[in-house]
């Protein structure tokens, strides 16, 4: 295998031929000076030329050998680089031509190593970003097969990230809108967006399809953003406005009708006037209570309501609450019990806010406990602190309503509009959370409900 460059070989041949000619000329001149002529001169010149040629050939062989070694090292180095040995370098040569070749190779190897390491670093960074980003990312090739999919997309589409690679989008997605968005973007060659609802997963997605190559065989980048929570917030806001409007409209309409009746002459009927004024007073009280509770809930949700924590004796607060509702419970024919032990450790709580929490829960339990039922307030020590329960033997809450029981204005029985504002349990949850605790409910329809929350013990 000839590994010498063509230009280098030509330079060597010319150099050797010049050396031979100079040698022959020198010998001929020398013999003429010495007086040698004729046949003797021819023989002498021939012998001298032969010796010069042999010497030149030997020198050429040595030169070729001295160049072939470094060139072979460069070729071997290139093969090692191709195999991934990016730290391999060739030794420098004493000959100028091969030294320049070796130095150029080593510079190339350094540049190649830095380039590969930079690409590896960027690829690792991209992989981390892809795996930790909240938005789903899917890369499709021209055959609509998945080349890349991150964990967010796997979660949003409920797909197996390992089996998804190499599959077509239609094999892991059953939503026709998403499939049409991807194919439409590839066909049109422009970015397309769509709001997609995944019915089987009850999720809303904002999807963006972007072509990632030119020509008829173009792939598509799909970006999926989960907007389910945003939709829920929007629905909650609409429901909130609707509920507030309804809760305020009803008493306002009632007050307006009674004022018009009084203004029309009923005010001169003492009995009717007193009845209407009492009703107006009650309706105004309801609206005032609702506005106060809305302001309180807003302060709690924004974190603007101060909570002053201090050691509190739970049994004293519990007894105070039950004493407050004794008359109400007796009038309803409901037994009200305080089962909080006197030797219970002190709580870290805001005494006023703790009183409000227990008041809301006991009042709610009494509203939905029929005659002959029982409402109890109990507590016990647990590993996380103090667990407090308000239990009743009332009508209970259907299972489908339990996840929404602490939402604003949520009422299990929508026909019972006059039973509270629907804000008490929402405020209670916020008060418990402001103390660093959590509250939950368990219920069986027709048997009763149990509200349980926990607070920290005083150290």
Summed up:
This protein is 55% helix and 16% strand.
General description of the model:
Helices cover 55% and strands 16% of the residues. The protein is α+β, with helices and mostly antiparallel strands and 459 residues long. The chain folds into 4 domains: 6-115, no CATH class; 133-226, 2-Layer Sandwich (Beta-Lactamase), CATH 3.30.450; 234-302, Signal transduction histidine kinase, dimerisation/phosphotransfer (DHp) domain (Helix Hairpins), CATH 1.10.287; 310-455, Heat Shock Protein 90. The longest helix is centred in the first third of the chain and has 45 residues, at 38-82.
Shape: elongated
Cα end-to-end separation: 88 Å
The CATH architecture of the largest domain would be 2-Layer Sandwich
* Oligomeric state of shown chains: single chain
Q: Over all CA atoms, what is the radius of gyration?
A: 47 Å
Mean pLDDT across all residues, rounded? Answer: 78
User: Quick one: biggest sheet?
Assistant: 5 strands, antiparallel
Supply the helix-strand structural class.
alpha+beta
Low-pLDDT windows of residues: 13-54, 414-418
What number of structural domains do the residues give? Answer: 4
- Number of helices in the DSSP assignment: 13
Output the CATH topology of the largest domain.
Heat Shock Protein 90
């Amino acid at each position: 295998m000839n590994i010498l460059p063509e230009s280098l070989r030509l330079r060597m041949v010319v150099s050797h031929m010049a050396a031979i000619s100079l040698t022959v000329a020198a010998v001929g001149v020398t013999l003429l000076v010495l007086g040698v002529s004729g046949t003797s001169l021819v023989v002498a010149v021939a012998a001298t030329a032969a010796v010069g040629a042999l010497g030149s050939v030997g020198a050429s062989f040595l030169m070729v050998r001295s160049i072939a070694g470094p060139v072979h090292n460069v070729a071997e180095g290139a093969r090692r680089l191709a195999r991934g040995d990016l730290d391999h370098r060739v030794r420098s040569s004493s000959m100028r031509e091969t030294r320049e070749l070796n130095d150029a190779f080593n510079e190339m190897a350094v540049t190649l190593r830095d380039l590969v390491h930079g690409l590896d670093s960027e690829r690792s960074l991209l992989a981390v970003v892809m795996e930790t980003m909240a938005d789903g990312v899917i890369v499709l090739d021209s055959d609509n097969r998945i080349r890349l999919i991150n964990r967010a997309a796997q979660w949003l589409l409920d797909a197996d990230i390992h089996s998804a690679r190499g599959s077509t989008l239609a094999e892991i997605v059953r939503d026709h809108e998403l499939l049409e968005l991807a194919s439409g973007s590839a066909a049109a060659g422009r970015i397309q967006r769509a709001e997609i609802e995944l019915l089987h997963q009850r999720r809303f997605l904002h999807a963006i399809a972007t072509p990632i190559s030119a020509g008829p065989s173009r792939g598509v980048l799909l970006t999926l953003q989960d907007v389910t929570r945003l939709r829920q917030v929007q629905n909650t806001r609409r429901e909130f406005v609707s509920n507030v409007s309804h809760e305020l409209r009803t008493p306002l309409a009632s007050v307006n009708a009674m004022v018009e009746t009084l203004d029309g002459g009923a005010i001169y009927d003492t009995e009717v006037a007193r009845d209407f004024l009492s009703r107006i007073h009650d309706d105004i009280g309801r609206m005032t209570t609702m506005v106060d509770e809305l302001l309180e809930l807003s302060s709690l949700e924004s974190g603007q309501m101060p909570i002053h924590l201090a050691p509190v004796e739970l049994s004293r607060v519990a007894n105070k609450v039950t004493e407050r509702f004794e008359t109400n419970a007796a009038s309803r024919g409901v037994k009200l019990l305080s089962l909080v032990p006197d030797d219970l450790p002190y709580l870290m709580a805001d005494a006023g806010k703790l009183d409000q929490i227990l008041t809301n829960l006991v009042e709610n339990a009494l509203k939905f406990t029929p005659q002959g039922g029982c409402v109890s307030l109990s507590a016990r020590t647990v590993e996380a602190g103090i667990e407090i329960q308000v239990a009743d033997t009332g009508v209970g809450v259907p299972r489908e309503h339990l996840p929404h029981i602490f939402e604003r204005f949520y009422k299990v029985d929508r026909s019972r509009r006059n039973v509270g504002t629907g804000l008490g349990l929402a405020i209670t949850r916020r008060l418990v959370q402001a103390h660093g605790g959590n509250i939950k409910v368990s219920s069986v329809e027709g048997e009763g409900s149990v509200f349980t929350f926990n607070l920290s013990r005083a150290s």
